[in-house]
Amino acid sequence: MGDELAVILAGGLGTRLRRVVSDCPKSLAPIDGKPFLYWLFLFLRQKGIGQCVLLLGYKSEQIIEYCQNGEKWGLSIEYSLEPKPLDKGGALRYALPLIQKERFLFLNGDTLLDVNIEQMFHQSRKLDSDVLIALRKWPSIERTDPVEVDKQNRVLRFGNPSIKAGCDGHWLVNGGMYIVKRSILEPLPEGRLSWEKNVLPSLLNDGKDVYAFEAKGYFIDIGVPEDYEKSQMEIPQFINSLSS
Fold first, then answer.
1. Mean pLDDT of the chain
2. Nearest to 217 by CA among 134, 118, 110
3. % the chain with pLDDT above 70
4. What's the per-residue H, E or C state across 46-76?
5. pLDDT at position 20, please?
């Protein structure tokens, strides 16, 4: 049984998805009759994750009631309930007492990216990175953060719209999954804090070791109605293919 830790942001309001899913948090949006988290937990369990901390806000009681202690997925699940909206960075900082691992996987509770998580942990430990960001190639930087890296995969710039596409016309963009070293959370201020707009740029400005790891597999963000519709067939097919 894998024993790595995943910290999952699952406190979003899901405003973009409201017209198709109105009565539950986004991470519980039904995919082929089962909540999105059901599929995400199956994926993480396959990839060597044994423990999860869920960062909760909006309608947290629904998520806790569904997930409970995680036993049905072979996981151990704990919860961090933000007292007010803290944004992604603030919610992670608030959960620090529950994070007992030196390194952990940090991801969104409404996206799925097929990446070798075991290899990401290995690479992060080998480089002793402060943050290792999973990147994917994408033909547009609308709704996502472009990333510039050097030949050693060190991140030079994050989220800057002036970053140019590669010679193939695609950008390297943020895949929304990170291996984070716990020690970088301790100096962060408590309160509302954006992970992408505040934390990552400040780490780069401070010369911290931020590296990239390219993911070439399946990706979907269910927070957009069109992709949510696509996910109904695609996610079950993808998860089932992992065990076949």
1. 91
2. 134
3. 94
4. HCCEEEEEEEECCCHHHHHHHHCCCHHHCCE
5. 56
18 pLDDT more than 60? no
pLDDT score of 26: 85
**Rounded to whole angstroms, how far apart are CA atoms 25 and 22?**
8
Spatial separation of the C-alpha atoms in residues 91 and 89, rounded to whole Å: 5
- pTM, two decimals, is 0.94
Structure-token pair, residue 210: 């931020």
> Could you tell me how far CA 43 lies from the centroid of its own chain?
13
Q: Measured between alpha carbons, how far is residue 220 from residues 82, 90, 108, 154, 227 in Å?
A: 26, 25, 11, 25, 7
Say how far apart CA 121 and CA 116 lie, in whole Å. 9
Q: Taking a C-beta distance cutoff of 8 angstroms, is the pair 174, 145 a contact?
A: yes
User: Going by C-beta distance under 8 Å and a sequence separation of 6 or more, which residues neighbour residue 166?
Assistant: 137, 172
Q: CA angle, corner 158, sides to 154 and 160, nearest 5?
A: 135
What are the tens digits of pLDDT across the range 120-179?
Answer: 999 999 999 999 999 999 988 888 889 999 999 999 999 888 889 888 989 999 999 999
Q: Are 111 and 220 in contact (CB under 8 A)?
A: yes
Listed in sequence order, the residues at least 6 apart from 239 whose beta carbon sits closer than 8 Å to its beta carbon are: 39, 42, 43
DSSP 104-136: EEEEETTEEE---HHHHHHHHHHHT-SEEEEEE
CB 131 within 8 A of CB 203: yes
